[in-house]
Write a structure and sequence with these properties.
Blueprint (H helix, E strand, L loop, with lengths): L1 H8 L9 H12 L3 E6 L5 H16 L2 E6 L13 H18 L23 E6 L9 H11 L6 E8 L5 H9 L4 E5 L5 H15 L2
Parallel strand pairs: 1-4, 1-5, 2-3, 3-4
Helix pairs in contact: 2-3
Length: 207
């Protein structure tokens, strides 16, 4: 029972098997690069993204904003317009400004990340489920990605771009090959990583 409690309720930092890669990508963010995490489904990319954001904040004293790009109001999760995506990002930025006490600043509904350049601290934007933007069509998707990755100097973006044969070539040109972009492919979890995930919480607590 104690072991199960550790698995379900224990510190999430102890349940990450790829801390070295997280640290490497966090270092890229704090060095001024954007970051792209690539891989197939259900291999821990979202957990890694959150870990990278956390470590980047710890390294720099900055703060992070996380957004799942899927439309929460649709069963299929597919965004229907650029405007709808930007509206959700604007809401996230507005909530963030309120949380840090910068209520005198207002997010531009057309370019919500620009206002973050008024802050002194590094800001890291985590964007999950970039693949869902493919519903907008290739041209609009590239336009939106370019807007999201054109940021003030203190704002860096870490995003997840799934491996998928329909969009791999587009992601390669629009994201991976973009100047100032560091990318990493996350393979399926290895046996050693699985053993680490199972044993680490128990060993730490003497179970």
């Amino acid at each position: 029972d104690r072991y199960l409690d550790l698995i379900y309720d224990g510190p999430t930092a102890e349940l990450r098997a790829r801390k070295d890669l997280e640290d490497e990508l966090a270092a890229q963010l704090t060095a001024g690069n954007h970051v792209c995490i690539r891989g197939f489904w259900r291999i821990g990319k979202t957990t890694m993204l959150k870990g990278v954001l956390q470590r980047a904040c710890e390294r720099s004293g900055g703060a992070a904003i996380f957004l799942d790009l899927r439309d929460p109001d649709r069963d299929d999760g597919l965004p229907q317009s650029i405007e709808a995506v930007v509206e959700r990002l604007t809401k996230k930025v507005t909530e963030f400004l309120a949380r840090v006490g910068a209520t005198e600043l207002k997010a531009d509904p057309k370019a919500p990340l620009e206002v973050l350049g008024e802050l002194a601290a590094p800001i890291f934007i985590g964007l999950d489920e970039v693949l869902s933007l493919f519903s907008l069509g290739p041209e609009k998707m590239v336009t939106l990605l370019d807007a999201l990755l054109t940021t003030p100097k203190n704002v860096r973006v870490a995003l997840i771009a799934h491996r998928h044969r329909d969009v791999d070539a587009l992601f390669e040109t629009a994201i991976v090959q973009r100047p100032g972009m560091a990318s990493a492919f996350v393979p399926p979890i290895s046996n050693d990583e699985l053993v680490s995930l199972v044993n680490t919480p128990a060993i730490a607590e003497g179970v």
